UniProtKB/TrEMBL annotation:
Lineage of the species this protein comes from: Bacteria, Bacillati, Bacillota, Bacilli, Bacillales
KW Lyase (keyword) present: yes
Limits of the Radical SAM core domain: 91-319
CDD domains in the cross-refs: Radical_SAM (cd01335)
Protein name: Spore photoproduct lyase
A Gene Ontology term for the protein's cellular component: endospore-forming forespore
Keyword Lyase: yes
GO molecular function: 4 iron, 4 sulfur cluster binding; DNA photolyase activity; S-adenosyl-L-methionine binding
Keywords, alphabetical: Lyase
Record PROSITE patterns: RADICAL_SAM
Taxonomic source organism: Paenibacillus uliginis N3/975
Top-level division of the source organism's lineage: Bacteria
SUPFAM superfamilies on file: Radical SAM enzymes
């Protein structure tokens, strides 16, 4: 018998699939809008269970026995409603205003601040009255012209992960393309950018990818796109001519962080086409938490390795009327200097917007 060498096929990682909710709620008023009807088509053609609700603010009968189960189910539940509050919140330091097209997210990042800001409403809400939202954006732009007004579309959600269902980012991007004094920006951990590649943007939208060291992504960011998928999507976005940026957040101090963040920048430089580095921006946000967030995270992700030891942190007064815990000055400086150096080593033309 001849000895045969077994050649194992190369292991291919499965692509992160676009989000399909398990359950959808509709406000009856939402079905009067084209986007509401379009989402209903999306739901019925896929046989997804749906229910009607009187208000997107009050979903009281979510399934699930325990708090944890309810939370998991809520993260796979979509609520389709009409946005009534058309006053936009401020969104510093990233932009002038938050433009509301969705809230909530299907990702399970352990540290995510939506866990506390969305409180008892962790389900995903999308708004169908985009025309009214855009009219309000136009008012803000006109008030401030000729100053540029920037809008952040990802303050309370990750809208790229919902774009195949709503199409809202396409509308925002195309609207902003025609606004001399308006700019749009959003950030994502998802790679599902294909609906955005062939539309007119006029360089008025900056798309940023949230990236991190491989360790942080694997440990703390379940149910989001993998590092390679995000980088691949970033290259596509760059080829489509959009201004591009990266948010390194949360920057986490762990054994081996220097190696992890050095590798991150090296891999980024290898993956991106060389001509995209002009105008590239980086934002850096160190990990922080409040006592409220720590309690919630420990309940929802009890096995998480996320370090939240108050004794090892520096207390800082937060603008939401609560102390937050950041790294002590020495660690902050070490993180900021090391990562900044790596950024400029690989991307000498890049601009660092802030470290916070
Ligand atoms: S992808 Fe962003 S919004 Fe979604 S859970 Fe993760 S950190 Fe939160």
């Amino acid at each position: 018998m001849t000895k045969q060498t077994l050649v194992r096929p190369a292991r291919t990682l499965k692509s992160t699939r676009p989000f399909i909710p398990d359950l959808v709620y509709f406000e009856p008023g939402a079905l009067e809008y084209p986007k509401g009807k379009q989402i209903m088509d999306f739901v019925t053609t896929r046989g997804i269970e749906y229910r009607m609700t009187t208000s997107h603010n009050r979903i009281t009968n979510l399934p699930g026995e325990t708090e944890q189960e309810k939370y998991r189910i809520a993260k796979r539940t979509l609520v389709v409603g009409v946005r009534k509050t058309l006053t936009f919140d401020q969104s510093k330091p990233s932009a002038d205003y938050a433009i509301p097209i969705s809230t909530g997210c299907m990702g399970h990042c352990h540290y995510c601040y939506l866990q506390t800001t969305l409180g008892a409403k962790p389900y995903i809400r999308v708004y169908v009255n985009t025309d009214q939202i855009l009219s309000k954006a136009k008012e803000y732009i006109e008030e401030r012209a000729p100053q540029i007004t920037t809008f952040e579309a990802a303050c309370t959600s990750d809208p790229v992960g919902l774009e195949h269902i709503t199409g809202s980012l396409q509308e925002l991007i195309q609207f902003m393309a025609n606004e001399e004094f308006g700019r749009l920006r959003f950030v994502t951990k998802f790679h599902h950018v294909w609906p955005l590649l062939d539309i007119k943007h006029n360089n008025h939208t900056r798309i940023r990818f949230s990236i991190n060291s491989d360790y942080v992504i694997r440990q703390f960011e379940p149910a989001t796109s993998r590092f390679d998928e995000r980088i691949d999507a970033a290259a596509k976005i760059a080829h489509a001519g959009y201004p591009l940026g990266f948010i390194i957040a949360p920057i986490i101090w762990y054994d081996g962080w220097e190696k992890g963040y050095a590798e991150l920048l090296e891999r980024l430089a290898k993956a991106l086409p060389s001509d995209v580095t002009d105008g590239l921006t980086f934002e850096m946000i160190q990990h922080r938490f409040t006592k409220t967030a720590k309690n919630v995270i420990e309940k929802r992700y009890p096995k998480s390795k996320l370090e939240m030891d108050i004794a090892k942190r520096k207390q800082k007064w937060g603008r939401w009327g609560q102390y937050k815990y950041v790294y002590p000055n020495e660690q902050q400086t070490a993180l900021r200097e090391f990562i900044t150096e790596r950024i400029f080593e690989y991307f000498p033309m890049a601009k660092i917007d802030y470290f916070t």
